């Protein structure tokens, strides 16, 4: 195991832990518990649980630990804690460190469930949350106070694909000692270096690009050893958000091919976005990899110019035209996951963001004609031809 390995090598070998059989592929330890040699050993383990020792799968498990070590190595973080879903990770990262009376600043363009935690749950427990336009540094600066405990944002927002400047927000937050928590799903572990750029804590829904094949739910929190073992672990091990060993194994194997998949998906997304820009039935083509994207300089700086695997199309003619477009597609499936090998199209206004008021949707640019398109691993020309025929069908 080497700290000097590049991402692709970490993705294949990082965190590997072999049993006495020296298996090549990672073993699945489908066990909730672990046997102690004797009563004294049990007592000792409960006093201090060593690096390669386990007590109960809610606390930790060898397969889960391999996944945690692999993603931590990939992200350049000291440690990680795996969770049952992306939302368990978001909730765990926030609630493990916050208490009544604390102040949080959050971007307002959030995945629906993230918004629920920040807007409803934290408020219920006495945490004050100030929402800002995440792309506006003036708003961040005005909202962050000397007593701000944490800032939270999605580095690339869903579904309008705005990019938030991690380095700049981290600088403002760190000036008052606030913890920077970044939900990094849309940026993907392949294109992002969030920790290097100033994030203290990075959260992923592993359900997305890490599995990448639509099989399992999972999540992970990455941060310093002190934050993960001192703050997150005590909270999560007692509240039960543990990742199952089987799902951890799915994620471990997913990480091995993630860079190949995500690079191929992003290349196709770039090709489709470029080909569709300016199409007569499109109000807007939103993709961070386009030169016309509002923050293309930042995309260069923060993501090496890579726009990710998702693009959004704003179709003229509102909901009716958007539905006609969805129904005319033959390759992408209508669903609500993303980062999958299969292309997936979603109408956020009536599904993932249905819970928001019309006013909130307007503010976030989630129009009735907006389609989120998660680009999969299909042949790029097949996908482009399909999208074009579906757009042409509604232009008639
Ligand atoms: C999907 C998603 C989540 C939640 O992940 P689950 O695994 O579905 O719980 C959180 N944040 C973002 C940005 C997501 O896309």
TrEMBL record:
Residues modified as N6-(pyridoxal phosphate)lysine: 208
Record keywords: Amino-acid biosynthesis, Methionine biosynthesis, Pyridoxal phosphate, Transferase
Main enzyme class: transferase
GO molecular function, one term: carbon-sulfur lyase activity
Pathway per the UniProt entry: Amino-acid biosynthesis; L-methionine biosynthesis via de novo pathway; L-homocysteine from O-succinyl-L-homoserine: step 1/1
Record bears the keyword Transferase: yes
EC number: 2.5.1.-
BP GO annotations: 'de novo' L-methionine biosynthetic process; homocysteine biosynthetic process; transsulfuration
Pfam families linked: Cys_Met_Meta_PP
Gene Ontology CC annotation, any one: cytoplasm
Cofactor requirement: pyridoxal 5'-phosphate
Catalytic activity: O-succinyl-L-homoserine + hydrogen sulfide = L-homocysteine + succinate
Family affiliation: Belongs to the trans-sulfuration enzymes family. MetZ subfamily.
Subunit structure: Homotetramer.
Its job: Catalyzes the formation of L-homocysteine from O-succinyl-L-homoserine (OSHS) and hydrogen sulfide.
Protein name: O-succinylhomoserine sulfhydrylase
Species name: Falsiruegeria mediterranea M17
């Amino acid at each position: 195991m080497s700290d000097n390995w590049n991402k692709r090598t970490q993705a294949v070998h990082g965190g590997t832990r072999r049993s006495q059989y020296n298996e090549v592929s990672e073993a699945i330890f489908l066990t909730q518990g672990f046997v102690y040699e004797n009563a004294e050993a049990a007592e000792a383990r409960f006093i201090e649980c060593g690096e390669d020792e386990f007590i109960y799968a809610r606390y930790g498990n060898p397969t889960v630990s391999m996944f945690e070590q692999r993603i931590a190595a990939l992200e350049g973080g000291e440690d990680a804690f795996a969770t049952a879903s992306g939302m368990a990770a978001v909730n765990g990262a926030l609630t493990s460190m916050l208490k009544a009376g604390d102040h949080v600043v959050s971007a307002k363009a959030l995945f629906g469930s993230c918004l629920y935690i920040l807007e409803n749950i934290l408020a219920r427990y006495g945490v004050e949350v100030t929402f800002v336009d995440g792309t506006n540094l003036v708003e961040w600066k005005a909202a962050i106070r000397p007593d701000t405990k944490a800032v939270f944002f999605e580095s690339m927002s869903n579904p309008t694909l705005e990019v938030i400047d991690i380095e700049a927000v981290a600088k403002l937050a760190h000036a008052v000692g606030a913890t920077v928590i970044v939900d990094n799903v849309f940026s993907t572990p392949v294109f992002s270096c969030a920790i290097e750029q100033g994030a203290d804590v990075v959260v992923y829904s592993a359900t997305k690009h890490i599995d990448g094949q639509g099989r399992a739910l999972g999540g992970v929190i990455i941060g310093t050893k002190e934050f993960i073992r001192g703050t997150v672990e005590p909270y999560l091990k007692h509240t039960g958000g543990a990742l199952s060993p089987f799902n951890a194994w799915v994620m471990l194997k997913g990480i091995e091919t993630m860079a190949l998949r995500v690079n191929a998906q992003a290349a196709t997304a770039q090709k489709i976005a470029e080909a569709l820009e300016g199409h007569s039935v499109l109000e807007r083509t939103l993709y961070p990899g386009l030169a016309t994207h509002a923050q293309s300089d930042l995309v260069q700086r923060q993501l090496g110019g890579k726009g990710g695997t998702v693009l959004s199309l704003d179709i003229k003619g509102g909901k009716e035209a958007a539905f006609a477009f969805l129904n005319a597609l033959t390759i992408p499936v209508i669903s609500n996951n993303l980062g999958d090998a299969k292309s997936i199209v979603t109408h956020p206004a009536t599904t993932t963001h249905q819970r928001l008021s019309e006013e909130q949707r307007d503010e976030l640019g989630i129009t009735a004609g907006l389609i989120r398109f998660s680009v999969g691993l299909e042949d790029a020309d097949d996908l482009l031809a399909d999208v074009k025929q579906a757009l042409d069908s509604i232009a008639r």
